[in-house]
Amino acid sequence: MFKTPDEEFVKEGAEKVTPKEIEKVVEHADEIRQQFQARGPLKRFVEDGKTLMALLKDWRRGNYRMALYGTIAAAAFALIYVLNPFDIVPDVLPFVGALDDAAVVAACLMLIERDLFKYRNWKTNQPIDVDAKS
After folding, report:
1. Which one is predicted more confidently, 75 or 132?
2. Of 50, 31, 62, residue with least CA distance to 120
3. What is the DSSP letter of 89?
4. Which structural domain, as residue segments, surrounds residue 69?
5. Cα–Cα distance between 111 and 105 in angstroms, integer?
6. Distance (Å, whole) CA 53 – CA 55
7. Is residue 58 in a domain?
8. In this structure, are residues 101 and 82 in contact, taking their beta carbons and an 8 Å threshold?
9. Which of 63, 65, 74, 100 could anchor a disulfide with 14, C-beta 3.0 to 4.6 Å?
10. CA-CA distance, 100 to 84, in Å (whole number)?
11. Distance separating alpha carbons of residues 34 and 36, to the nearest angstrom
């Protein structure tokens, strides 16, 4: 029987994330963003998905290093999971295929809530750089 992904699932996945996989997430940012905007259960996480992606980009650039690597790895794991069409429930199944993706994102958000709150505060207080790409 299918077990809903939870925080433990995200922790275990995050432990296996490598710097190369974080790079992969950043390289596929546009595809991941489309997954959030195009699919039913993930739509409610559009803003959170943007925040997770921004966190990874700022961490990778060295702009924000206050988050622990475990937080970065959990965010990367969740976004890789969303990008992967062959996860626990294949994404080709309408609606149902996106439910596990939404569960992983929700579990990730609960797991890294404190760090995400700190990041959002930091991000809000940064000067806007019109030349930087997000």
Report:
1. 75
2. 50
3. S
4. 7-123
5. 10
6. 5
7. yes
8. yes
9. 74
10. 11
11. 5
Residue 132 forms part of a structural domain:
no
- C-alpha to C-alpha distance for 128 and 107, rounded to whole angstroms: 30
pLDDT digits (tens, 9 = 90+) for 57-84: 999 999 999 999 999 999 999 999 988 8
Distance CA 77, CA 83 (A): 10
Single out the residue of 2, 5, 8 nearest to residue 82, CA to CA: 5
Question: Length of the chain, please?
Answer: 134
Q: Report the predicted TM-score, pTM, of the whole model to 2 decimal places.
A: 0.82
Identify the residue whose tokens are 């929700």.
106
Identify whether the C-beta of residue 59 lies closer than 8 Å to the C-beta of residue 67.
yes
130 within domain boundaries: no
DSSP 98-128: HHHHHHHHHHHHHHTHHHHHHHHHHHHTSPP
Q: How many domains does the chain have?
A: 1
Distance separating alpha carbons of residues 66 and 75, to the nearest angstrom: 14
Which token pair is 123? Answer: 């991000």
